[in-house]
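Narrative of activities, Objective 1.

The group set out to show that a structural description can be obtained from nothing but a protein's sequence at a throughput compatible with the screening campaign. Below is one input-output pair from the validation batch, recorded exactly as produced.
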Amino acid sequence: MSSTAQPPIPADGDAEQSPIEQELAVLLVNALNLEVAPADIVPTEPLYGDGLGLDSIDILEVALEVSRRYGFQLRSDDERNQQIFQSLRTLAAHVAQNRAA
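Output recorded for this entry:
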């Protein structure tokens, strides 16, 4: 019996990256030429502003890369963007729910 369910996303208190979070951390570092190791990105810290320090242009670039890699669109006019890009963990949960099979 096979299942297509995705592995569970760890609870917010868990600072260890899940496999999808690891993939996205590498994507962030490579796409934005960040001077941080992917493994050093804490999944629950904010991506925007004071956390990882991304700005709106960075978020647009990440959205483009996620769309290319995972086969679904992240639109700039989506009212959920603030929630989606809140942290690596929230971005990973959104990707896990929406990526093409």
